[in-house]
Design brief:
Layout: H1 2-29, H2 33-46, H3 65-77, H4 93-103, H5 109-121, H6 136-140, H7 153-165, H8 172-180, H9 198-210, H10 218-229, H11 251-263, H12 278-283, H13 303-313
Helix pairs in contact: 2-13, 3-4, 3-5, 3-13, 5-7, 7-9, 9-10, 9-11, 11-13
């Protein structure tokens, strides 16, 4: 009798073990290093929220519209809701935006573009946010004679992207203007000319794609070829090549290129260099805290690098 009881007990224990394995195995199999890294980064970012609901740049005190917009886009890319992220005083980043608009402080066209992109990513109507059309100042910064938006190529591309993402027709002349500013290399320079940089080029690619330009040919195809040619061995990207500051990969430029690749319909892993791809290069820049460093040689926690890296980890193009 005791033997039978022991056998039954053994079978029961084995059944529990098998059941446990069946429950835990799928969770292990579904572990995603990219989303895990993104979630860890978001957790770190949320510890930096200011009492008014916004976020600072990490370089100066107080909430900043652009930095807050970047964090909102990161939060939304991770699947969380920025409206539900409350500070100790009970304010969300969305509350911070509303406050800034209500106070009618001086806000630049670039800040309005970032704000409009952040609102769109949060599922809000940037054209009617508390009765204010956040896309209108972008159009006000558009020069119908020259086709330019704002005072730099970067702001021009950012403005185009904000309009397109929010369903506002991008002026045809603005599209033509951005195309005309492309350098001989295939890239765009922040302030124009042939001194092209990775960040402006990656943003311009996304703005043109969002505005309906073909991906594989024309100015976009040439720009993608240019970006591909600048990839470092680790799979990441520097701000500029050549550069007196060196060509070490950094988180922000690498993330922007990854987002441009995603916007083009490809995946960053398809751009594999000898020692990695854009996403693996980003993972190498994450610190133990969850924050990202700007570069490996600058191993400190960086707010803007962290906010910029997260959407790419969740495979979201800029402002999606």
């Amino acid at each position: 009798m005791n033997t039978i009881k022991q056998l039954r007990a053994g079978v029961f224990a084995a059944a529990i073990l098998i059941s446990s394995i069946g429950l835990t195995a799928p969770a292990t199999a579904q572990t995603n290093p990219l989303s895990d890294a993104g979630d860890k980064a978001i957790a770190w970012l949320l510890t930096k929220q200011e009492s008014d609901g916004g976020f600072s740049t990490g370089f100066s005190k107080g909430s900043d519209i652009g930095a807050t917009a970047d964090v909102v886009m990161a939060i939304e890319a991770s699947g969380k809701s920025a409206a539900e992220v409350k500070s100790s005083a009970g304010h969300s980043p969305i509350d911070f935006f509303a406050q800034q608009l209500m106070l009618r402080k001086a806000i630049s066209a670039g800040q309005y573009a970032k704000l409009a992109l952040a609102l769109k990513s949060a599922g809000l109507d940037a054209r009617n946010f508390n009765g204010i059309d956040a896309t209108k100042p972008i159009l006000s910064a558009y020069n119908a004679e020259t086709g330019a938006i704002g005072d730099s190529v970067y702001i021009h591309a950012l403005g185009m992207l904000a309009l397109a993402r929010n369903g506002v027709a991008v002026p045809a002349k603005a599209v033509d203007k951005l195309a005309s500013l492309q350098g001989k290399s295939g890239g765009w320079a922040f302030a124009g000319g042939d001194d092209a940089d990775v960040d402006t080029t990656a943003l311009a690619v996304q703005a043109l794609i969002a505005s309906g330009q073909p991906v594989k040919t024309g100015v976009v195809g040439k720009a993608i070829g240019y970006l591909h040619s600048l990839q470092n061995e680790d799979g990441g990207y520097p701000y500029q090549v050549p550069s007196k500051f060196g060509t070490e990969s950094n988180a922000n430029s690498t993330a922007l290129v990854a987002q441009a690749i995603i916007a083009s319909g490809d995946q960053p892993e398809s751009w594999a260099a000898s020692k990695g791809n854009p996403l693996s290069a980003l993972l190498n820049l994450q610190t133990k805290s969850g924050a990202f460093s700007y570069q490996l040689s600058l191993a400190d926690e960086n707010m803007l690098a962290t906010a910029g890296a997260v959407p790419a980890l969740f495979r979201k193009a800029f402002g999606q």
